[in-house]
Design brief:
The chain has 247 residues and is of the alpha+beta class. The protein has five helices and 14 strands. Strands 1, 3, 6, 7 and 13 form a five-stranded antiparallel sheet that branches. Strands 2-11-10-8 form a four-stranded mixed sheet, covered by helices on one side. A three-stranded antiparallel sheet has the order 5-4-14, with no helix packed on it.
Length: 247
């Protein structure tokens, strides 16, 4: 669903039929429509960060490691083939034990060295521990075995250990929320399921102007929760053990 269609869904829910955006319009500067778009973006971001890792936002990122270089920007302008953003998160595998139960504290990071046939998973350590290792390792070099990942402005940054002794190819699975929907391009397609987004935006817009003017907030909240729950259930699979850890 496009930005324009999301705004129109909210407008119809508010009974603002005269403000419906026609199909040929690709941008807007109307103050009321900009407010509705703000509610749409707020709803989108809250749903993206609601705990479920939406399939459309999971991406495989390739990071090219160079000899003697410890830190890498996870951006196209840096060492990666995909841009991360300020809400990006690393994805983890939730390990299952032999009896089929999830093992407590056994979520492992999805970062792998795929340089050659001896592919391996890297281990994650806190950034401060990584710094101490590099302070005291007598300039050790070799194949990367550990990493630390952290937020650096509007993107993620990765530091590795030991200092690489050559060129290596790392692959990481990241959760990268979609950037803000803009009023300058109403044709942008929403990545995650649309129904929870426009229904939550409608709930916000309805509350802003007074629920007596439209459907009661309580009913809209129930409808939104139903839509969100169905969208998550539709994506979930018993075999999907991918998780996002709390910050």
């Amino acid at each position: 669903m496009t930005t324009r269609e999301l705004i129109n869904k909210v407008l119809r829910g508010l009974r603002q039929f005269s403000m419906i955006i026609d199909s040929g319009t690709t941008s807007t500067t109307d103050d009321y429509l900009l407010m509705i778009l703000q509610f749409v973006n707020e709803a989108k971001e809250e749903i993206e960060e609601s705990g479920w890792a939406w399939q459309a936002l999971r991406q495989t990122v390739t990071v090219t490691v160079a000899a003697s270089t410890l830190e890498y920007d996870i951006t196209i302008a840096g060492a990666a083939d995909v841009d991360s953003n300020d809400r990006s998160r690393l994805l983890y595998d939730n390990i299952i034990g032999s009896e089929g139960f999830r093992l407590a504290d056994c979520a492992v990071p999805q970062v792998f060295d795929v340089t050659d046939s001896s592919e391996s998973r890297l281990s994650e350590v806190p950034l401060e521990k990584m710094e101490r290792w590099h302070f005291t390792d007598d300039d050790q070099t070799g194949k990367p075995s550990h990493f630390a990942i952290y937020q650096d402005g509007d993107s993620l940054r990765m530091k590795i250990y030991p200092t690489p002794d050559g060129t290596y190819t790392l692959k990481a699975r990241l959760y990268i929320p979609q950037t803000e929907l803009l009023n300058t391009d109403l044709t942008t397609e929403l990545s995650i399921p649309s129904r929870p987004v426009w229904m939550k935006a409608l709930l916000k817009a309805n509350a802003e102007r007074g629920s007596e003017l439209g459907a009661p907030d309580g009913l809209l909240a129930i409808q939104y929760l139903d839509a969100h729950g169905f969208a998550v259930a539709n994506e979930q699979s018993p075999d999907d053990e991918t998780v996002i850890l709390a910050r």
